[in-house]
Amino acid sequence: MDKRRGLPQRKPDLEFYLHRVFRKKSFRPLQREVISAVVEGHDVFLQASTSFGKSLCFQLPAVIGTGLTIVICPLLALMMDQVNALQAIGVAVSTINSNTPLAERRLILDDMLSGHPCTRLLYVTPELCQTDSFRRNLQVIHRQEQLQRIAIDEAHCISEWGHDFRPAYQELRWFKQNLTNPPVPITALTATATPRVRSDIINILGLDTTQLRLFNTPSARPNIHYEVRYLQEYSDDEDQLRNLLKWLNAIQSRRTARIGAEAATKLPPISGIIYVGLRAMSEKLAAELSRESNIAAVAYHAGLAAQERTRIQALWTSSKPCESKDGKPSPTFSIIVATNAFGMGIDNSHVRFVVHWTPPRSFEGFVQESGRAGRDGRAAASLVYYSPQERDRIGDRLSRDAENLKNRGGPKPHVESQLKNHAARLESFQKVIRYCESITKCRHDMIKDLFGDFELEEMGSQRPPSSQAMDSRGGMSSSPCDFACDFCKEGRGGLAKRQAKMAPDYMMQVMYEGYD
Ligand SMILES: Nc1ncnc2c1ncn2[C@@H]1O[C@H](COP(=O)(O)OP(=O)(O)OP(=O)(O)O)[C@@H](O)[C@H]1O
């Protein structure tokens, strides 16, 4: 073990820190292995499904021994959630971001440069890591042997082939190039990376492949029931709304049948998210749903004031019974109707369903958003409403975006980078189409295929033992679907029947691509 970074000589008792500092009973499968590799000083790449508990994999090592862990985070909200949660359990954590007052910034930097920082974790933006002054400070801390490691959250943002490309992430290559002798270990974490994005993460960050430890969990979540609802030809918003209400009412009836009407009224509401493409749609749909006595729905989008968004999120996360309407029993459902402004970092464990009102624009976005459901490990559902008309509308818009990019001009490398990222977005949307239009494969398996889980296994990635089983190709696959998708439940015939009711003049694209 590396004495220079102040890591303890004896193997640390990870359980002790888990119980005493983080107040958790036990590690989730694979967490201990990842944390051990981080503590041993390896470069680590972790691709784990939404809600796995990736943050603990760098937070727990950070509180062992001395020294500072720098955490790079792309979103202020995500950063603040983690910082607040760590402060609440007494961990010495700070953040420097655009909202940090100058005086506080000075105090943090004084501590960092003191030679024996009290701060264990410092959350920063990738943009801050590009500045000369911050880089100089990091070099000083490194020379003082107090820079324990660097954790890069949402590491897929580094790749132009990723759905959330952020140019400042590419400059994080500076760490391995400049913080040498000894190199500072890096932990890169993501929930959504395709093979191309993974290879960018490893190459751009310059992770040491001779000692890099790879870990992954299956990209599809076993507790989520995945389903695609095919909209019939000429159906309109009202038909779709009726379809959704029928589904919700069936859920309510099953609940009442199981526990009785009286007991059901005392339970917290069933939480769900409906993702829509436009702000106006989120307002309209929330208003329509709220007309139902058993639903409390609220719109959430970037057009609302920040305070209002925080208030809505807090109310929706609280899981308190909703206010009753006109003296009637309190609503059974608490639904947030959101644009994709509501996404990363939403850690509400009791979301039971995520509905995509229109096809998601990117496959990675779909997996992130549907992954907001069932974070408590209990059964949850992902529903996507799909029609070829909507498919073509989104496809056309993406093509127009490409034209606009070409016409806009600008410095060549910049335009090239944007076009590459745009090509990646088109590719990602093609995956959404394959996912929605395929009627010959389990949706869990499709998600794993489209994320290249199999390739990760071939690269020697370690996975939770419980997720390993033989798949139809004779290789290792994650746990079986167990009827938790529409294909496994209804079979090819059932899906074909539903799909045939869509507009007949639109051919399904996957047939041309030979995916099936
Ligand atoms: N061992 C554990 N036992 C119980 N709860 C845990 C454990 N590890 C993490 N958690 C909890 O799981 C939740 C999800 O953790 P975290 O936010 O790190 O997930 P994530 O993998 O980053 O997911 P996402 O990519 O969706 O943001 C948090 O509330 C966290 O406190």
From TrEMBL:
Gene Ontology cellular-component terms listed: chromosome; cytoplasm; nucleus
The subcellular location is:
Nucleus
Q: Where is the Helicase ATP-binding domain?
A: 35-211
EC number(s) stated in the UniProt entry for this protein: 5.6.2.4
Membrane-crossing residues?
Answer: 56-80
Highest taxon listed in the record's lineage: Eukaryota
Q: Which reaction does it catalyse?
A: Couples ATP hydrolysis with the unwinding of duplex DNA by translocating in the 3'-5' direction; ATP + H2O = ADP + phosphate + H(+)
Q: Which InterPro entries did the record assign?
A: DEAD/DEAH_box_helicase_dom (IPR011545), DNA_helicase_ATP-dep_RecQ (IPR004589), Helicase_ATP-bd (IPR014001), Helicase_C-like (IPR001650), P-loop_NTPase (IPR027417), RecQ_Zn-bd (IPR032284)
Record keywords: ATP-binding, Helicase, Hydrolase, Membrane, Nucleotide-binding, Nucleus, Transmembrane, Transmembrane helix
Its Gene Ontology biological processes? double-strand break repair via homologous recombination
Does Nucleus appear among the keywords? yes
Supply the name of the protein. Answer: ATP-dependent DNA helicase
- Naturally occurring in which organism (per UniProt): Penicillium argentinense
